[in-house]
Amino acid sequence: MPTTAPPAHALADVTASDSSLRRFLHGLPGVDAVGLEARAASLGTRSIKTTAKAYAIDLAISMVDLTTLEGADTPGKVRALGAKAVHPDPTDRTSPTTAAVCVYPDMVAVAKEAIAAAGGAPDVKVASVATAFPAGRAALDVKLADVRDAVAAGADEIDMVIDRGAFLAGKYLKVYDEIVAVKETCGTSARLKVIFETGELSTYDNIRRASWLGMLAGADFIKTSTGKVAVNATPANTLLMLEAVRDFRAQTGVQVGVKPAGGIRTSKDAVKFLVLVNETAGADWLDNHWFRFGASSLLNDLLMQRQKLATGRYSGPDYVTVD
User: Fold this and answer.
1) What is this structure's pTM?
2) What does residue 160 show for φ and ψ, rounded to 5 degrees?
3) Does the active-site annotation cover 259?
């Protein structure tokens, strides 16, 4: 497969050949696993109170990619999700909208219509998984057709999965070329999130290499997981990816977003991740243009905590809609 023209940035020359790309990726500093996990755990002990907590909860709501990626998804379920993204708490219109609704390509048009009908366009984006999600086991022409279908239906964002088998076999240029091809297929219509499935990459060193590979290929976001495997987003792997986007911007001037996905279920979890963002990448990433939560159940807990801060009473799960 011929190499597609690389994105223009200060490190573009490292992708000129398979050997130069391999040399660069394996020349990245090794990850101190003990130190990484200790720092993630330490930052997770930070606590915030009152007005700062209220701000953090609203910020987290605004960063949620409200997601349904099931074989049993129906147009009715997606319409309900679209309405919830625009008005997460129907009893309180001061609640922020979520960042996006994330669906399969065949549900993109339904999600777009639902968001528009609820008055949320263009604030709430429609994200679509593609490239043979979640396994990524398909020919490139099939993957690109998947992307084209989603973009043609109106997707604002594409969440692609890398070929983990190729990556783990050391075929870095193959993975790079596929990301570049998907990015080109997105055109100017859709931002690209690249999913690594960190739970299948085995080592922190591999997660660091995948992060740099995705950014070199032009990813707008790097994303931990599909949510379909046993190990998804963790504070440690997200911290590692935040370090990567921080260092990438320092070297190239290009800012890339981060999206932890899967396993983030409570407001306390979300706040821990926001602390990681602020303390690692910095305040420039504390915005839904640069940081997202891939979640389905997180939003309800955020809404319950928001209600408690506003009323002093914990309302419980019966007072929020079930996705």
Assistant:
1) 0.93
2) -100, 155
3) yes
